[in-house]
Specification:
Beta Polymerase, domain 2; 6 domains; 6-stranded mixed sheet
């Protein structure tokens, strides 16, 4: 490379002979040499960087062999950072996003990487008029406006920021830029004289009053004027605050506010203020700590001038980062970034070369808790550090996350639990058969992914419970077994499930054998001598003669005349005294008595009409009680179950044998097994339970 010695001497870099020889071996074109020289000029004279940064600029495209020969490890770190940032431009990304600015910072382990790319952009913009392609010029200018100018502003490089904004406007809105620049050039002498005329009497008045202060006068930048023209929808001649004056007071802390208001009073006496343009951030500072008093007054020649009044302390805070100008315009605080930028700015403004070189000790750790990754289309997403491929899939779309089976990064397939790194470009792989599992919760780290997985698992539980219940009801029907939810709930508790829905899920998922469950259910519900007694007519009392059957066909009358005929009350419908009933002659178990409303009645009468025997109650055994089940649904209120059980216990002749309760979605469903004398007593207790506060329904179960 040519002119290495010239660069070293011009900027007092102090390269060694070996370093100059290594840099001189680089193969660069004349255009590349000129451009890097202009970048170095910006980096050294305007940004304040030194030898390390200059070496990195010269070596930024060098291969690994050359870099390994360079003794300074910091140079290699900066060059690697510059290459990583350059790789971003190979991805078609939305550069205007705030995330991209953060990504630039996160990829730069050394802060000088960011400062160098700003210097490169400044050099590029200054020679952009040599680019023959107008579309390319416009694209570069737009990118500079929304990315590099704000980045320079955040780093305290206000002069470079203003120049980048003005040049961006020049190549995107040339006619507007030309108009504003022409107006300012034509009026420069008059403007300077105007500012001097405005300041001179004010300065004398404040000096006479004993204030210690500094007054700065300036014309706003072309870009700033343009933004105000757009906002106010007026021409350049109608911009209120084309001129700006800043008065900085050397005040004692306890006198700051009072002296600021005193100066305002002097200005208001001398020049007519616009009350609508008064901004008081002294009494109540901005949330970012900004303190100042702004007013717009009508100066000589009836021109509006903005005046800012603040103390030295307030100005230093506003200028050096704690309340940086970008935040003052409405941005949000980013934690430790403020203190970092303040330190960088102080270093850049220092005349101490050692202080400038101390930048080597800084690392941008403020975004260590975030990673930035791209979709195949180049869209940028921000995720917390430690995020996996599955987190990324859910960040894009819930459906994509639920079907995710892995991903591809750089053409290499990775599992769903693969941890992502800054700059990864991720393609999500899916399968329609994939479903979320409990294990996923163990390695995702975003709240969105975790919530969506839990929601999907909950929906699957509901679906499995519904499928399990439907399966059990269908199989019981095929087996001619009466399905009783209360008994199934009781069996679920017996098997160790917290709720009957857990049993249904186990059935649907194949964790519970339905044949074994059938056997346990039949065994549990098999009638005992106490529960379903074999009744003979001798146990019943004689009923009045009018209860005798009136038809000529054979009728089973349940009374003492049947002392030698065994019969039992069917478990499928649990008939009790008073229910309309019929008899069914079984092959081995005698006669079973069913209710006319038994769910199996229609099928039995259709298939086995010759086994049907008309029956009715002729008398009731003394002291005999019948088990029945009531299904109660109501609000899951405190004390409602206690109220129901207390009511039953107070009822004479009614015994509460078992109770099971399920609660969900603010409702409870209870199954109560009672011992009652007859149908009349059953109806009385059912109606009383239905009137309990909070009960929505009380029905008899088969």
């Amino acid at each position: 490379m040519k002119n290495v010695e010239t660069i070293s001497r011009k900027y007092n870099i102090g390269f060694t002979a070996e370093e100059e020889q290594l840099l001189g071996s680089l193969l660069l074109t004349d255009d590349e040499v000129r451009f890097r020289a202009s970048v170095i000029d910006v980096a050294v004279t305007e940004v304040g960087l030194g030898k390390t940064a200059v070496a990195a600029i010269l070596l930024r495209d060098a291969d690994e062999t050359v870099l390994r020969q360079w003794n300074d490890e910091q140079v290699r770190v900066i060059v690697e950072g510059l290459k990583r940032v350059a790789d971003l431009y190979k991805v078609n990304t939305s550069l205007e996003t705030e995330n991209f600015r953060k990504l630039l910072l996160s990829l730069a382990e050394d802060v000088r990487v960011v400062l160098i790319i700003i210097a490169e952009r400044a050099a590029l913009m200054r020679q952009l008029n040599t680019e023959p392609d107008s579309d390319k010029r416009r694209a570069i200018a737009q990118e500079t406006s929304f990315l590099y100018a704000p980045l320079a502003h955040r780093l305290g490089l206000y002069t470079i920021k203003t120049e980048l904004e003005d040049l961006s406007l020049k190549f995107t809105e040339y006619d507007v830029y030309k108009e504003i620049a022409h107006t300012l050039n034509e009026t420069k002498k008059h403007r300077d004289a105007y500012i001097d005329a405005f300041i001179t009497p004010l300065k004398k008045k404040l000096e006479d009053m004993g204030f210690r202060f500094t007054i700065k006068g300036r014309t706003k930048s072309i870009h700033s004027i343009y933004k105000k023209m757009l906002k106010q929808n007026v021409g350049v001649d109608h911009i209120y605050d084309l001129f700006a004056i800043r008065i900085i007071l050397d005040s004692e802390p306890e006198k700051e506010k009072a002296e600021c208001w005193q100066v305002y009073s002097v200005i208001a006496d001398m020049y007519q203020p616009n009350p609508k343009r008064l901004r008081d951030w002294l009494t109540i500072p901005k949330s970012n700590g900004y303190e100042s008093l702004h007013t717009t007054v009508l100066g000589p020649e009836q021109k509006w001038v903005e005046v800012q009044i603040r103390t030295r302390r307030m100005d230093e805070i506003a200028e050096k980062g704690v309340a940086a100008h970008w935040k003052y315009k409405g941005g949000k605080s980013e934690g430790g970034m403020d203190e970092f930028l303040k330190s960088v700015r102080e270093m850049l403004e220092s005349e101490d070369v050692q202080t400038k070189e101390a930048l080597q000790d800084f690392r941008l750790n403020f975004y260590d808790e975030e990673v930035f990754v791209f979709t195949p289309n180049g869209d940028l997403h921000k995720l917390p550090k430690g995020a996996t491929v599955l987190d990324f899939a859910f960040a894009i779309h819930t459906g994509l996350g639920c079907r995710c089976v892995g991903g591809k990064i750089g053409g290499r397939q990775v599992p769903i639990k693969h941890v992502l790194h800054n700059g990864d470009q991720v393609e999500i792989l899916t399968s329609p058969q994939q479903k979320p599992t409990q294990a996923w919760l163990g390695f995702v780290c975003t709240s969105k992914a975790r919530n969506k997985i839990r929601q999907a698992l909950k929906e699957k539980e509901y679906k499995d419970a519904a499928e399990g219940r439907e399966m059990l009801e269908r199989r019981f029907k095929n087996w001619k077994i009466e399905y009783e939810e209360g008994q199934v709930s009781k069996l679920a508790k017996k098997l160790g499930y917290k709720a009957v829905s857990d049993l249904y899920q186990a059935l649907a998922q194949g964790r519970e054998d339905i044949l074994a469950l059938r056997d346990k259910y039949v065994e549990m519900t098999e009638p005992t001598q106490k529960e379903v007694p074999i009744i003979s007519a001798s146990e019943f009392v004689q009923q009045p003669a009018q209860d005798a059957p009136r038809s000529h066909q054979d009728v089973l009358v349940i009374d003492r005349n049947l002392s030698k005929v065994d019969y039992r009350l069917a478990k499928c419908c649990n008939p009790i005294y008073g229910d309309p009933v019929f008899g069914f002659v079984s092959v081995t178990k005698g006669i079973s008595i069913h209710r006319e409303t038994c769910p199996n009645a229609a099928q039995m009468k259709e298939r086995f009409p010759y086994r049907i025997i008309p029956a009715r109650w002729s008398g009731k055994a003394v002291g005999q009680q019948y088990p029945i089940t009531l299904r109660v649904v109501g609000n899951d209120d405190i004390g409602i179950v206690t109220n129901i059980t207390s009511l039953i216990n107070k009822e004479s002749g009614v015994l509460l044998r078992t109770i099971s309760i399920d609660s969900h979605d603010g409702l409870f469903e209870g199954h109560l097994t009672l011992l009652v004398d007859d149908i009349n007593q059953l109806e009385q207790i059912r109606k009383k339970i239905a009137t309990v506060r909070g009960v929505k329904s009380c029905t008899r179960q088969m």
